Amino acid sequence: MSTRLKRLYKITQTMLSYGLDEIIPAHWLPWSVRLGRHLLFWIPNQHKQQPAGVRLRLALESLGPVWVKFGQMLSTRRDLLPPDIANELAVLQDKVKAFDGQQAQRLIEKALELENIHDVFDDFMVQPLASASIAQVHTATLKHGDDAGTEVVIKVIRPDIRPTIDADLRLMETLASVLARHLPDGRRLKPREVVKEYRKTLIDELDLLREAANAIQLKRNFADSKLLYIPTVFSDYSRPNVMVMERIDGIPVSDVDTLMAMGVDMKKLAERGVEVFFTQVFRDSFFHADMHPGNIFVSRQHPDDPQYLGIDFGIVGTLNREDKRYLAENFLAFFNRDYRKVAELHIDSGWVPKHVNVEEFESAIRTVCEPIFNKPLAEISFGNVLVNLFNTARRFEMEVQPQLVLLQKTLLYVEGLGRTLYPQLDLWKTAKPFLERWMHEQLGWRAVIRSVKENAPFWAEKLPEMPTLLYDYLNTQRHQADYQQRMMLQLAEQQRQHAQQVWWGMITAAMLVSTTLLVVAKVAWFYPAATGAAALVSAWLSWRRKRSS
To answer: Which catalytic residues are annotated (predicted)?
Structure first.
């Protein structure tokens, strides 16, 4: 706990020393926060001369990778931030302060068990090509084998980064537990589950062997594709903290001026960005979940038929079949403005409680979504839509789904990318045909053929065993029928014996009551004696029935 408190104090100290409290208007802050700022009077703003965007960027850089990642996500939301702040945060995408290049070389040599880095690589550049929050990259040329002469980049994890990440994640988990306990919406928002999902994705980024596997999978998914090119990974030279990958020559997707000067078809480029996203999600169920502009480039070849180049595959998302089906049906219903269907899908999936009035929920969704149709992307803000949907969710007790957090973040990246490249992009017109085609493939005759192909090896293996399996099944069913018949006879006999026991018990009770009444009436002695004897006999018979059962 003391470590978490120290880290919390460090975060607070950093934010105050960079004057981040002054960025937010004072009247937006609750009185408790304003009072806390006055009590921490010994932490002054030490960077008053710097613009707000620079202060925010420097503060996030100094706090470490967890916060840099947050800044990267914010940098794509230019509709929600002032231009100066958005421009500064964009620097976090690939221009984070580098660590010493000689130290990086030693880390590479140790990971690959080399006496000298020049044993494997020529032209190794000590000065890093780019530096990000988790790792930095250096350029080199492969020296041996069939790939000799290939220009590569070597990605190396920052040294001693894990303790800082663990400390921040522990602090986030503590804060999430507090929020889950004390916020009215704590249970619905699932802060602990969201932080747990974030922990998994962030820790995965620290394993470059996992990233290499992700890159290989994505490259296989987009083999010979005009939409997206994934560089080749050289697995023989990759380790948990080092990865070697083909160097690409592309234009940063954020460099719009250069793209336009080269004559790139910006409309097609923006539309292909949307297609890449939906292809990864719905066709492959495996998508690049860190698509900020620092990780996306455009090929210099064929500007009239542009192709994306992707890097940095540390964060990927996956969806199961139910999630895909649910999302596709929601998107199609949304594009068709069938808000009743959207409301019913939410309730059927269990994301919204069954007791919610579907008509009211439909009306609320229509109120949020209807105004954004028939507008180009330049006039639409998914940020504002998500805020309104969030408020709607609170009204109807809709729960946050942690498994979709990465998808939501990626969708925001795609929006930011489309807004930068071609603000007039009609997102709905671009995405709807793709989703309709995908749904037809899932439900039509193509789905049947694909299912047969996918399961052919299984049936080919099981077909010779079918006669034996059928015989075993029929034999088991026969024994099962005999067993059930015996059990039914046994149950009937037990019920008969129980009925007799109840009968004799009732006679015993009646005889006892009669004996009592006769004694009270002071009749001749042999009458109560007879009924008492009858009560004893019936009680004995009831006891015997009970023992025999």
So the answer is: 290 (proton acceptor)
